[in-house]
Amino acid sequence: MEGLTFRKATAADTDRIAEIIHGEPGQEATAICGCEEGARAFGMAMVRLPDSPQGWQRTVIGEMSGAVVAVLQAGHPPFELQVTPQLLGLALRSLGVSVITAYPRWRARMRVQVAPPGGSYHVEELHVDSSCRNRGIGGALLGYAEAEARERRHRLMSLSTTTINPARRLYERHGFRVVETRTDRAYEKHTGIAGRHLMVKELS
Hints:
By secondary structure, the protein is α+β, with helices and mostly antiparallel strands. It has helices at 14-22, 27-33, 36-48, 85-95, 99-111, 137-151, 168-173, 185-191; strands at residues 4-8, 60-64, 67-74, 121-128, 156-162, 177-183, 195-202.
């Protein structure tokens, strides 16, 4: 895409990364945290944690005219959110006492998570600023990810998404297909979403 460039993120990009990933929480995150404000606060604080699994060290930035418009986190071992004292403190600061009610919703979320195939190049996060969507930036991010996957000699790419995410059409246009779907009654009750898909793309 003309004018779009990519670079590795630096620590100075942390706040912008947090804003793009969590500034507009989706239906799943909002439901699990109990409200949009809580989801935003918790997600943005997660990015800012030292050595965060969503931190700048794992991030590629998409820029246009010097402005950060997109974020890609891919090619790293998928992270599992562990309940640690640090994380509990973060949740309490972000969600307050509602963290108690959020815990069963988080457990339901974990039940619909599908582990990526071993050895795959996994796309963990792919986000475009809302003011710049529908301009081909998401496809360009997938192209960047695929080029890196091929350079590293991966034979498979993978990603996970909710069953209602309209971005599934973008992934399918770029060669991804659903290989597994997990649903859970409690997850659907809490979020209004049936479950999550694991999608893969084979690299020839």
